[in-house]
Amino acid sequence: MTGSAAIDGTPIFSQLDLVLTPHSWTCLLGASGVGKSTVLRLFAGLAEGITFNGSLSKPGCVAMMAQQDLLMPWLSVMDNVLLGASLRGERADKPRARDRLEQVGLADHADKLPAALSGGQRQRVALARTLMEDRAVVLLDEPFSALDALTRAQMQELTAELLAGRTVLLVTHDPNEAARLGQTILIMTPTGLVDIAAPTSPIPRDIHAADVLRAQADLFDHLRRPT
Ligand SMILES: Nc1ncnc2c1ncn2[C@@H]1O[C@H](COP(=O)(O)OP(=O)(O)OP(=O)(O)O)[C@@H](O)[C@H]1O
């Protein structure tokens, strides 16, 4: 993606130059409101209301997990996980959906409605739904933000395992998450992207690994003084 974007005539970003490395995780951080979700929406082709000037290679069919869980309130947890197949008129792969629910720790909640779940449980249903999809490109907008620290670490590891080999763009506010999962780490600022040296060890990296702690500290310093 190279170009600028505006919403309702208000500039969101200008001359952004973002290349996703295939088969690898790119983590995108940056201050609230800088335009990270707008970038994801453009890549996903959900650009309603956004005016984009520039060139954009759309990655084809993507899986996307938005910041809001977007669960259908009238569908059970299981049917929410099967929603993609249902909307495409495909056969429901219930064993795979049960596996995903088991993996996110919600096997016992399959028959409940979303209203009966906590915020973190709802976010894990949305994660399970995203991980149901078999897509080469996956866009994740703060997918672990509502989770407690331990569950967050477990879901990071699960997601890295299930999306191995995919091209992933992860928006996060968490420097530790970016240091664990990022193979490219970028900070979005009003004047463009800042490339932060990512650890080179395989992902998901150990939370306590020296290279993770170094990258996390480096990122935190850049977020404080992005220029
Ligand atoms: N529907 C909309 N109408 C008008 N302005 C919008 C709309 N959606 C987003 N914006 C504006 O676009 C800018 C970028 O929003 P975006 O959601 O992309 O930021 P973000 O970096 O993802 O923020 P956050 O980290 O808080 O999620 C913000 O200033 C926001 O106010």
Q: Would you summarize the structure shown here?
A:
Belongs to the ABC transporter superfamily. 35% of the residues lie in helices and 22% in strands. It has eight helices and nine strands.
Provide an overview of this structure.
With 227 residues, the protein is α/β, with parallel strands linked by helices. 35% of the residues lie in helices and 22% in strands. The chain is built from eight helices and nine strands. Strands 5-6-7-3-8-9 form a six-stranded mixed sheet, with helices on both faces. Strands 2-1-4 form a three-stranded antiparallel sheet, with no helix packed on it. Strand 6, helix 6 (149-162) and strand 7 (167-171) form a beta-alpha-beta unit. The protein is globular. The two termini are 22 Å apart. Bound molecules: adenosine-5'-triphosphate. Adenosine-5'-triphosphate binds next to helix 1. Adenosine-5'-triphosphate binds at residues 7-8, 12, 30, 32-38, 49, 67. This is ABC transporter ATP-binding protein. Keywords: ATP-binding, Nucleotide-binding, Transport.
**Biggest sheet details:** 6 strands, mixed
Estimated helix fraction? 25-40%
Q: How many β-strands, per DSSP?
A: 9
- Order of strands, main sheet, comes to 5-6-7-3-8-9
Q: Shape, please? A: globular
Q: Please write the string of helix (H) and strand (E) elements.
A: EEEHEEHHHHEHEHEEH
Structural class given helices, strands, pairing?
A: alpha/beta
Proportion of residues in β-strands: 15-25%
Ions, cofactors and other ligands present here are: adenosine-5'-triphosphate
What is the CA-atom radius of gyration, in angstroms? 18 Å
